[in-house]
Amino acid sequence: MTPQPVDAEVAAALAAAHLDDFFVHSPYIGDDWIRHSSGDPLKHVIGIPVRQDGGVIATYFVELGFSHYDTWPPLVTFVEKDENGQWVRARIGSAAYPFIFNSPGAPTDQNRPTPFQFALHDTYSFPDGRVTQLVCFSYSLDYYISPHAPSPDQKWTPGRDRLDATLNRLYKVLNSTAYAGPSRTAA
Question: Which letter does DSSP use for residue 163 in this model?
């Protein structure tokens, strides 16, 4: 089944309500999480902290796109600000692009697996001809547009799953032993 956009007003209202709820109730939330409005009610930028030794060592920003929400998960893209202050896709070689061990282009270490099936692709060729970043896990929309098939326990379930599941999983990956540091300094 190919994901289809949903009613934009409904998606925007759900995204706003679920983000508000996430920032109050997530077990991982703290003052070090950041929330930016992009001016588009269907896009929000969230700063996710990486913590080590009791402190924050990095913050990675993801843009969440809600054009298909909540029938499908949000679209997830790691982003950074360009010289004009606009959010753009982060790329390998940038401190804004995290290396996750064993992802394409990242260092390899089989002793540092992700806590669940996950990979970060700087560039990925989609069946529709797009070539862009793929945050590859079943709580990101592009996973369902790429030729992946989640197992029943991995599959996004509307009405049960919400954007907090997406953000909590991203937090878990970035704060796991699979995190290899920013791509500009890792390798």
Answer: H
- Gyration radius of the chain's alpha carbons: 16
Of 172, 152, 149, 184, the C-alpha closest to 50 is 172
Residues whose CB falls within 8 Å of the CB of residue 113, separated by 6 or more in sequence, listed in order: 101, 102, 177, 178
| CA-based nearest residue to 168, from 5, 37, 18, 27 | 27
pTM of the model: 0.94
How do residues 102-118 score in pLDDT, each as one tens digit? Answer: 999 999 999 999 999 99
Calpha distance 184→166 (Å, rounded): 25
List, for residues 37-84, the tens digit of each pLDDT value. 889 999 999 999 998 877 788 999 999 999 999 999 999 999 999 999
- Using the Cα atoms of residue 135, residue 103, residue 62 and residue 27 in order, give the sign of their dihedral: positive
**What gap in Å lies between CA 166 and CA 178, rounded to an integer?**
17
> Strands (DSSP E) along the chain, which ranges?
34-37, 43-52, 55-65, 75-81, 87-89, 98-100, 119-125, 131-136, 179-182
User: What residue ranges define each of the domains in the chain, with the CATH number in brackets?
Assistant: 8-182 (3.10.110)
